[in-house]
Input
Amino acid sequence: MIEGRQTKSHLNRKLKMGMIGGGPDGFIGEVHRKAARMDGKIEIVAGAFSSKPDKSAQTGQDLFLDPGRVYNNYQSMIENELKLPTEERIDFVTIAAPNNLHFPASKAFLEAGFHVVCEKPMTFNYEEAVELKKIVEKTGLVFAVTYNYTGFPLVKHARHMVHTGQLGKIIKIVVEYPQDWLITKLEDMGQKQAMWRTDPDVAGAGGCLGDIGTHCENLAAYITGLEIEEVCADLTTFMPGRRLDDDINILLRYNNGARGILTASQMCAGNENNIKIRVYGEKGSINWIQENPNYLYYYKANEPIQTLRRANDYLCDAAKRATRIPTGHQEAFIEAFANIYNNVADTIRAKMLGDEPTELENDFPKVQDGLNGMAFIKTAIESNNSDLKWTKMIK
Output
């Protein structure tokens, strides 16, 4: 363990996790499970993994779960978990189902007294997000949104550099996320992920916009702390017959006067998950690339480029906490998810003990971040459909 990484010995057991979604046809559910187990603070004990009972049962069997705690839907899961003694029932649930289930499942578990970790985008639409924020505030429970790119150590250090003034006033942000996975019409070939992610009745109003555009919005917000004031959006569907956008190009105006460019596409041949961000300040700039995530490039005018590397003593405390192994050994996608789960687990544990979580423990995307993402989707669509050059960000 890298020096600076913190653990807690409170409570004499692991936190118990349930899951909604994440069945055998999905990808992200198993990522969540691996990430949650990584630091040894969480065990998976229950789930409703699929709307198809046989597939839910198969996932439970693969995870060696008690068959009595593998459910056909989230409603029966809540009902039966509440019948168990407090020490045996789940402490929190992860919702890794399609977007249209995020709000009803989150609402039901919160109102039943369970903490929630939810996939992004947080809800099906903006109105649900507004209501969900009220529910989270009323219950006082922990609610996390898995914008996982915030979990990378050097993203945390980039944030530290901005917030400590090392770049000076931020004047420009360029964030992009090109993919090529929908360059063929997979939704017509029975590919489950493509089918629901391109279906507005399941995914919501944004296709590429909701799926990866919100990652771009959140990454820029996390690093800089700036808020979008206005957008000028151009949303395109290049694939004939596709029902949602598969390419987005958006100009941004931020609340400090900075300007931004946000572009994402699922039609860029040869690109896999190439999210990257450049932040320019009056004193310096930084560049981070997710496909080479253990390096952060730092530029100052008329000076050599500095390459900052993960797991070094010069990094901030948040970056050190998010680091598990020495420099030169690669940490990446699942570990970034695990950093969110590690902080969520410590925050839930603190809440259970009546303690206040530390700033480092409390470092994960929350309901306001999810609401911001839904406001971004709604505003971008309004901008795209408007004849006006600029559309004010919904607040």
In short: The two ends are 42 Å apart (CA to CA).
